[in-house]
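job 3f2a | input accepted
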Amino acid sequence: MSWNVRGAVLLAAVAISSSLCADAQQFGPVKVAIINAQKAVADTAEIKKAQATLENKYRTRTQAVTNLQNQLQTIQQQLNTPNLPPEREAQLRADGTQKQKELQRLSEDLQSDVNNERQDILGKAGRQMTEVVKKIAEQKGIDVVIDISNTLYFRPALEITVEATTAYDQAYPAK
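job 3f2a | predicted structure (175 res):
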């Protein structure tokens, strides 16, 4: 994070803290919790199962990419052979060019499909985790839940990441 952004975040935190302190006198102490939302979602049984499912679903296409990479490597090794006849060299270069295009297309398609599906899965899980964290906060009387990615320091006792993951797994068991 750049110093300008970090400074702005720090300044905003000071302003919020000042405001919370003023409000705390009026409303009482503010209860805060910290969560590593990314880890909380990533550690759920549903996400672990989805990752394994994605790997299995795209295994054939991943192997096709690996096979093309190996074929290109073999072609490159053959092109480095001394005293290669010009017609053989021309054929190898043509094959290499064709396989390189095929590899690029397959790789881009595979990456796009995996990314789209992963984003759908993570989006749904993120929304569900938000619901779970809200319930935990309400049950514990927590006023504010802050993600660890924007936190410079916190007492470990304030962290609810593991609790959120456990509650998520109970609310949304992996199918």
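job 3f2a | The two ends are 38 Å apart (CA to CA).
job 3f2a | closed
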